[in-house]
Structures are given as C-alpha cells and as structure tokens.
Amino acid sequence: MMILSGDPPRSRALSLILIAIVVVLAITPFVFPGAKPLNVAAKICIFAALVASYDLLLGYTGTVSFAHTMFYGIGSYAVAIALYGMGPSWAAVATGIVIGLPLAALLALGIGLFSLRVEAIFFAMITLAVASAFLVLASQLSWLTGGEDGRSFSLPELLRPGTVFIKDLFGVRINGRILTYYIILVGCAAMILGLLRVVNSPFGRVLQAVRENRFRAEALGYRTVFHLTYANVLAALVAASAGVLNAMWLRYAGPDTSLSFSIMLDILLMVVIGGMGTIYGAIIGATIFILAQNYLQALMGAASNAAAEAGLPLLPGLLHPDRWLLWLGLLFVASVYFFPTGVVGRLRGAPKPAE
Amino acid sequence: MATPNNMTTLETQSLTIRFGGHVAVDGVSCAFRPGELTAIVGPNGAGKTTYFNLISGQLRPSAGRILFDGADITKMTAPLRTRAGLGRAFQLTNLFPNLSVEENVRLAVQAHSGTHYDMLRPWRTRRDLIDRADAILDSVALGARRSVAATALSHGDQRKLEVALMMALEPKVYMFDEPTAGMSVDEVPVVLDLIARLKTDPSKIILLVEHKMDVVRSLADRIIVLHHGKLVADGQPAEVIASPVVQEAYLGIAPGKSAA
Ligand SMILES: Nc1ncnc2c1ncn2[C@@H]1O[C@H](COP(=O)(O)OP(=O)(O)OP(=O)(O)O)[C@@H](O)[C@H]1O
Ligand SMILES: [Mg+2]
C-alpha cells in the first residue's frame, strides 16, 4: 500500500490493534463524553508523532539523543510566545511556526554537523548539554518565556470552545475544541505517515546501514554524517511540530509540559515498549503509556476498594492508588523483559532480516 | 607517468604510516597500471592490509602521497574515494550483519547509483536497484541465499558477499584482501573466476593480497613484496618468486632452493 510506503504492519494482530487505535481516536469526541478522554486522546496523537520521530533516530540510525524534548519545547514555546505576544490571531500561529520550525531545524543541523562526525556517545553528550542549557535558558528568560510559570494564551476564534459549528451531531456539539482535536489527529497522522515514507525510502535504508555498520556504509561511498544529520533535522522538525500542536491543545507552554527531562524519559520508555525501528511501535507505545499514566490510578483505586470490600488481606494496600507509580514501573520492567523487541517486535514474531 | 587521460592511474609516493613507534608502511612508492593485476605478498604483519587502508582512505598516512587519476587524494575521505572509483573488499569480513544478503548488495548498488538522500519514494519502487543487486548475487553464486541475514551465511558465503559488495560499486580499482582466505576448496573457484573475468577489462586496476602462491602465479601480471612495511621486490611473477629476497623473507626458504 502506497500510503504505508510498502511497509505494512506485517502481523494480523498488530494491524487489528492499530486499526482499533486509529478508529477509537477518530471517534473519541463522539463516544467518550467529557474533557478528560479528549485530552488523553490528543496526548496520544501528539506523543505518537513525537515518539515516532524519536524512533527515526534511535531505532533506525541507532543514535541516542537527549535533545528531543528541546525541539518539542521549541515548537511549543514558539507558538505560545507568538500567540501571547501578538494576540490570538492566525498570523500569530503562522509566526510561531515560521520561527519555531526553522529554529529547531537549524539547531539540529548545527548539533548534527558538529557532533555526528565522531562516535555516537559524543552526540549523546552534546545533546544532553545543549538541552540542559536550553532548559536553564527557558526558565531564566522569563520576560520572554514566562519563566517557571510558562505562557498561557488564547487561540484564534475558530479554535475556541465557544465557537460552535454544529449544535448537535450525534448528540455532540461540534465546536472549536473538537476542530482543534481533529487538526491534531490529522496532523499527527500525516507526520507518522511521512516518517514511514522516510524510513522506507532509499535514504532510510542507508540509515539502517549506518546503524548496522557505519564503517562499511562509509566504505560504500555514503557520507554518513550527512545522513545522520538530515535524520536529526527531520526528527527535530517533527518534534517541534508536535510541540506546536501540544501547546495549541493546552493553550499553554511551560517547562513541565514541553521541556522537562521527564518527558524525555517518557519518550524513551514509549519507544522501547512499542518496539524500536518500526515506527508503528510509537503508536502502540504512546497509547499504552498514556492510557496507563491517566487511568491506572483510577483503575487501582477501584480494584483496591473492591478488594477491601471482599475482605482480602494485603491487596487493598498493594493496590492503593498512591502506589500507581510502582505498578507503572513494574509494568515497564515486565514489558521490557517479556518483549525485548517491543510489542511490535513481539507481534511480528521471530525476527526476519529487513529485505 | 605517460598514460592517456581516460586511463585510470593509481600511484603511491613514499607512503608511510606509523602507529606509535611502529612503522607499518614505510615509504612505499609504487604505480599501478590499468589492465594489470598486481599481487601484493608478504608475511603476516607486513603491512599489506594497512597499505590498502591507506589507499582506500580508512587510514591517513603519516607521510607520503596518493595520486589517483592525476589528482592528489591523500586527504580525501573514504566515501569520496569510493565514489571516485576505489573499490575495497575487506580481509576481515565487514558486512551489515542483520540485513539480508540482497539488502547488503542493494545498498552498494544504491550507493553506486548516486541515490544517497532520496527520502520521498519507497525503496521498493527502485526495481532497477533490486534487479541489479540480484544479478550480482547470481554472479557470485549467492542468488539462492538472498533473503537470509548476512550473519547467517557460512564463512565462505560471507567472503563472497564481501566481494559482491565491491562488484556492485563497479570501481576503477579493485582491492581484494585475501578474498579466498578460509574458504572451502569448492568455493574458491567462484571467486577466482570472477577475478579472472575482471582481468579481461583492460581499463581496470586490480590489486590482490594473497598468501596462496598458486593463486598468485595463475592470476598475477606483477608481484610486489612488502616486508616490515617496506617494498622489497617488484616485478614479473616468475622473477619475483625466484628472487632471493622473496625466498628468504616471504617463503622462509634459504636462497638457492626453488620455491614450492
Ligand atoms: N590501527 C592500527 N593500530 C596499531 N597498529 C596497527 C594498526 N593497523 C595495523 N597495525 C600493525 O601494523 C602491522 C601491519 O598490519 P597489517 O594488517 O597491515 O598486516 P598484513 O600484511 O595485512 O598481515 P596479514 O597477512 O596477517 O593480513 C601489524 O604489526 C599490525 O599490528
Ligand atoms: Mg592483512
């Protein structure tokens, strides 16, 4: 299938799960009432794209970057600062994008050309240093970024909850908020399909060759520093775009929602859980992780109460909602242990060489 | 050297590399001619592989120059030398282990076709690259193994794949580093036939590092001998093999006795 760039899921179970995820995301506004499900669904979309772009680096080229949230943050802050400073207009959105994306691309280009010439560990250290500096910068330049408080802003008229397009469609009021959600859904789907195209292109095949044996790729005539740098730039562009969408959804950009290293850690976990070097893994990883993050606590609360009512010993304490992080941790250890190649790798079965 | 412009020329001038105090290649000056297969012989550790690494750009010399097609390429990076037409098959098999045999060759074909940064179309739509890779695999009798991972091949097949990668680059200069080492007897002819076929093209320079004297005798037009990094003999196969310096230095036979 051309839209999948000739790289289908290659597993019936995986296809079904992916279709289910996409369908549920597409109908969320109609079947799950309330703000929370829509927030969770938007976050899944945004993180699926963000994690897929990280997979381009980690899974396909084998380079470890700690600067991915920085690019995500650049996108978030660019659109937030523009909307905050210029007021809620489309011109402000465009300004944020026109400044944010090239800034992210240039920074990725610079970091790549400077540090991807040598061993991968150097690149990892440089990205760590640059991302830390950026985090400090974002909180220090409070006149611009709002410091620790971040920047809250209003969206253009069209995207506001108060703007109603259809009063009642299948019992749902179609407003600006729902339009924003669908912009995010379509935008993220386009980015993921774009990444799928890139990894299955002749260029993408060279990335895998570099991961496998960079020395040999060079000996074949590939100037690998450029391949790695372009991959870094593409990943940064997608991350920054995801950041733009995230800020527009939250109507806010701050260190905790777009820059912190804990997001970097979440991205790493999602890519590993889903399965590295597959792109599809990003969708699965983001869905599992964000669902767990949002609903595990409630689920445990219910289970704990049920166990208490049934008079079971020990269980109510173990399942207490306050222990949810412990269980989340255990879930990850278990998933990495049982699915070392991620959910996608597991569903695809025994590893076959890439053709 | 008075070679016409369209003919490939390769020359090293006083090429030297030191690793700490150890001089692995020591002032080697040698010009290679198109249509000629030069065998490079010498005992283990003589510097043959290092000499190749200097020519193909994996190592930078401490002193000396490399001239290729009239240009000084001493400072050129390895990928650019490959693109210029220097092909290299490695002594220690050097593949993309988890990619399929076909993909290994296809990547080399793709590199040679100049398709480096095309990211907009799926690789499968470049049927021409896949077909070319398959043809090359057939030429080294690996066609039947095209979809297994390179790492799953037998040692002999990996050696053949190593050669196939170089063939895919269609270079002007072929550098074979012990291509048949460790192969079983029945696998050797495939590679030797291939080299013999390359020899029929009068525009190619072929360099062959080889320990097996019968192979050298049957294929070489010229032999150069490296010993402790120095070029100690250079000439017609018969005369070099018979020379005292080779008898002593390489074959470990006292001068006067004939080579085996
Ligand atoms: N990167 C390196 N660093 C340090 N020493 C090296 C390096 N590469 C090669 N050498 C040394 O240079 C010398 C020549 O090695 P080289 O591999 O060129 O020999 P060779 O003639 O190819 O031997 P063989 O027939 O065993 O393949 C050896 O003593 C080797 O240890
Ligand atoms: Mg050697």
From TrEMBL, chain A:
Keywords: Cell membrane, Membrane, Transmembrane, Transmembrane helix. InterPro entries: ABC_transp_permease (IPR001851), LivM-like (IPR043428). It is found in: Cell membrane. It comes from the Bacteria. It holds the Pfam family BPD_transp_2. It is a multi-pass membrane protein. The keyword Transmembrane applies. The keyword Membrane applies. GO terms for molecular function: branched-chain amino acid transmembrane transporter activity. GO terms for cellular component: plasma membrane. The chain crosses the membrane at residues 12-32, 38-57, 64-84, 90-114, 121-143, 179-199, 220-247, 267-291, 324-345. This is Branched-chain amino acid ABC transporter permease. The lineage of its organism: Bacteria, Pseudomonadati, Pseudomonadota, Alphaproteobacteria, Hyphomicrobiales.
